[in-house]
Amino acid sequence: MAGPGERDARGRGRRSRRGRRGVGPGASSLTEAELRLARLVGQGASNQEAAAKLYLSVKTVEARLTRIYQKLDVRSRSQLATALRP
User: SS3 string of 2-53?
Assistant: First the structure.
């Protein structure tokens, strides 16, 4: 298995999620894509606005938000915003 910053067998790069600056401790479990979405929503963007900015479908945003909420153990957008604070 490839270590942080190395390439795995499929040639995809892997990045460490430890030590991200500017996010709360729970947010380190999020992927880069999830973190981008969480930040937008935490700043007040609607699902439709986030989908447009990230070039995703609204359904994809909904699915990712479900995973983000589960990973961070939050139940609302306000709790999400709080969880992302450093």
Answer: CCCCCECCCCCECCCCCCCCCCCHHHHHCCHHHHHHHHHHHCCCCHHHHHHH
